[in-house]
């Protein structure tokens, strides 16, 4: 798929800092015309710059959000993340099968599911697994994989294969960055395919993103706005982004200050 190829192309250029047109065409097995179109997308993202005979990673590429320690990210905008998680939990219905993505906002959804008698949670998040231990009403299914400490998640091809067996009603997804131009982005290459598989296997899709995530770009795009039913956040994004969401039939829901833990 073109989106996947563009993300892989961006990752390669950012890792190698520079590349020639001929080398990229050979590596990705595409024509120069196709490559030029792909590079226009990356130039619009602000991650690469075209030079004579090739491309280079932009000098400000380091400003593209990268992963910092999990605990540091968990402590950022803590109250906003709690409100967003509570809003997300309000969409869950009795006996739903839901997927909770790894993330410092999504992990808090578990704390707001106490009003349900039974719910099945599928996850690759270590934090969600730990929290679910305290709730008898949660039927927990943990994806098998290798521990990735900086995201507190289980990763690997086995996670993707395991997801293929389940029919998920609602997927609650996390992201590193989101913009109208680049879509829904993530900084972890190991989680890329897991996120895409979760979207594919679920009926309803919700993106949890606090206001610091908007208008930014990260390493890989794992989803487009039109794949999500709703974006759950604590502050309304700018008008241009809201208009883009409306065109893509993606609603924006704002978390209330009055939502309390169940």
Task: Furnish the topology, listing elements before pairings.
Layout: H1 2-16, E1 18-20, H2 21-28, H3 32-45, E2 48-51, E3 54-57, H4 70-75, H5 78-89, E4 97-100, E5 119-123, H6 126-132, E6 138-142, E7 146-148, E8 153-155, H7 157-163, E9 168-173, E10 177-179, E11 183-186, H8 189-201, E12 202-208, E13 220-223, E14 230-233, H9 239-247, E15 251-254
Parallel strand pairs: 4-5, 4-9, 5-6, 9-12, 12-14, 14-15
Antiparallel strand pairs: 1-3, 2-3, 7-8, 10-11, 11-13
Helix pairs in contact: 1-3, 7-8
* Overall tally of structural domains: 2
Question: What summary fits the major beta sheet?
Answer: 7 strands, parallel
> How would you classify the helix and strand content by structural class?
alpha/beta
As a whole number of angstroms, the C-alpha radius of gyration is: 19 Å
Percent of sequence in beta strands:
15-25%
- Principal-axes shape call: globular
From the N-terminal CA to the C-terminal CA, the straight-line distance is 42 Å
CATH C-level class of the largest domain is Alpha Beta
Order of helices and strands: HEHHEEHHEEHEEEHEEEHEEEHE
Mean pLDDT: 88
Helix content: 25-40%
Widest sheet: strand order?
Answer: 6-5-4-9-12-14-15
Number of strands: 15
* Named CATH architecture of the largest domain: 3-Layer(aba) Sandwich
What is the count of helical runs? 9
Could you name the ranges where pLDDT drops below 50 across 5 or more consecutive residues? 62-67
Write down the CATH topology of the largest domain.
Answer: Rossmann fold
């Amino acid at each position: 798929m073109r989106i996947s190829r563009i993300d892989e192309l961006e990752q390669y250029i950012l890792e190698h800092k520079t590349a020639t047109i001929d080398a990229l065409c050979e590596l990705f097995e595409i024509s120069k015309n196709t490559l030029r179109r792909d590079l226009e997308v990356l130039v619009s993202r602000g991650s690469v710059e075209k030079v004579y005979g090739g491309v280079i990673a932009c000098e400000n590429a380091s400003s593209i959000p990268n992963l910092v320690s999990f605990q540091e990210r968990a402590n950022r905008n803590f109250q906003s993340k709690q409100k967003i998680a509570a809003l997300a939990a309000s969409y869950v219905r009795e006996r739903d099968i839901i997927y909770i993505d790894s993330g410092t906002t999504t992990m808090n959804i578990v704390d707001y599911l106490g009003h349900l008698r039974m719910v099945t949670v599928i996850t690759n998040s270590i934090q969600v697994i730990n929290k679910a231990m305290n709730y008898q009403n949660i039927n927990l299914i943990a994806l098998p994989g290798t521990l990735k400490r900086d995201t507190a998640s289980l990763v690997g091809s086995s996670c993707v294969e395991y997801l293929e067996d389940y029919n998920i009603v609602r997927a609650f997804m996390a992201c590193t960055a989101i913009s109208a131009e680049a879509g829904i982005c993530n900084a972890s290459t190991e989680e890329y395919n897991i996120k895409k598989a979760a979207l594919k296997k679920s009926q309803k899709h919700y993106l949890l993103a606090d206001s610091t995530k908007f208008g930014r770009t990260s390493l890989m795009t794992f989803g487009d706005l039109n794949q999500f039913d709703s974006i759950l956040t604590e502050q309304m994004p700018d008008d241009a982004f809201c208009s883009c969401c409306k065109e893509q039939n993606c609603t924006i829901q704002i978390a209330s200050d009055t939502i309390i833990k169940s």
